[in-house]
Amino acid sequence: MRRVLLSVVQVGALLPAALYHLGALAAEAPSREADLLAAASTPLAYFLRSRGPAAQPVLYLGWTLATICALVCVIIAGMLLIGMFRRRKPQDARALVSEGGVRLVYVGSVLSTIALFGIAVYMLSVLAEVADPSKTPGLTVTVTAYDWWWKVDYVDGESRFSTANELHIPSGVPVLVLLKSADVIHAFWVPELAGKTQTIPGTANRQWIHADHPGIFRGQCTQYCGVQHAHMAFEVYAQTQADYDRWYTAQMGAAPAPSTAQAIRGRKLFAERCAGCHTVRGSKASGVQAPDLTHVLSRRLLAAGSVVNTPENLIDWIEHAQEIKPGTLMSDMQLSPAEAGDLSAYLATLK
Ligand code: HEC
Ligand SMILES: [Cu+2]
């Protein structure tokens, strides 16, 4: 009994402090790139702020539901406390009916029913609101989920290119994302920009995202899809139109032919060992089961958010993919030190 009371008091004392910290976090708006990166990886940040119109209604819905749940807890705990302190003697139990205590039960049931019905209507209206905003997309991209990475296809008339685990969009523009799956059911979720949508083999789902301001937003697969489900992250880069155009033009280009002897040896090695799975546009490598590596150096992270893309991590990934991401569909590549050097020199040209 004492312990119960103590816990209630403790939670009561902690709540205002927690709310204060949440409020302070929500108020700060990250501006510099470093802050954006930090913000991109803050867990639960999606409960504090939304960065686009598609996420705003979901955020409010989350707050409303959390508030109602908290109220229910407080009210029930309060009534429980009252009940404990004003307990009748066992032989008085029948007094409950004569004193009208049962009426409270009816009132409670009716209130709960009304509240639940209201919540259901509110939820459905939020679903309808985020499913189809009355806008035409400024950009349409196709995102295909693979075990355990994301392929992003940009198609503009004849020209097309694809990248992996990075979705670049111009900020302030509604973007329609067509969601597909190459294998099992995954779910695409960029909490600060939009709700979750499943990717289902054989169909294309639709998801709108729209970033109000430039920034980097972390996304994550949220449907359990196998051993490396947790390492199936991606990032959305919302950029100014000028930055986005610059990125787009650079991605469109094919890889240049390597010029040093070492890099040329590296490309030959790549053709022998990697081309069955990976594509490098501008070379003969045209595998489709793995990320397009034409501009792999332009990416911030490797292997769906597993490691930061540095020259050391890049070659480490190639030789020890199974250690970094056990079960991933790329095996450890056995390379002699000379081969590793050649391959690194070639990959360094894939900017
Ligand atoms: C059997 C097919 C296969 C072969 C062969 C293969 N890879 Fe991969 N590779 C993959 C898959 C699948 C992924 C995605 C792994 C993940 O994120 O879970 C990948 C990921 C990568 C990545 C990270 C790309 C990114 O943007 O995250 C690099 C770099 C890479 N491979 C380089 C190579 C090199 C170099 C070789 C040859 C020495 C090679 N791979 C051979 C299947 C393969
Ligand atoms: Cu997944």
TrEMBL record:
Keywords: Copper, Electron transport, Heme, Iron, Membrane, Metal-binding, Respiratory chain, Signal, Transmembrane, Transmembrane helix, Transport
BP GO terms, sorted: ATP synthesis coupled electron transport
Record Gene3D superfamilies: Cupredoxins - blue copper proteins
Subcellular location: Membrane; Periplasm
Membrane topology recorded in Swiss-Prot or TrEMBL: Multi-pass membrane protein
Domain (Cytochrome c) ranges: 261-351
GO cellular component: membrane; periplasmic space
Primary localization class, coarse: membrane
Signal peptide boundaries: 1-26
Organism domain of life: Bacteria
GO MF annotation terms: copper ion binding; cytochrome-c oxidase activity; heme binding; oxidoreductase activity
Catalytic activity entry: 4 Fe(II)-[cytochrome c] + O2 + 8 H(+)(in) = 4 Fe(III)-[cytochrome c] + 2 H2O + 4 H(+)(out)
Entry-linked InterPro entries: CcO_II, CcO_II-like_C, Copper_CuA, Cupredoxin, CuRO_CcO_Caa3_II, Cyt_c-like_dom, Cyt_c_oxidase_su2
Residue span, Cytochrome oxidase subunit II copper A binding domain: 136-250
Annotated transmembrane regions: 60-83, 104-124
Coiled coil start-end: none
Family: Belongs to the cytochrome c oxidase subunit 2 family.
Function of the protein: Subunits I and II form the functional core of the enzyme complex. Electrons originating in cytochrome c are transferred via heme a and Cu(A) to the binuclear center formed by heme a3 and Cu(B).
Protein name in UniProt: Cytochrome aa3 subunit 2
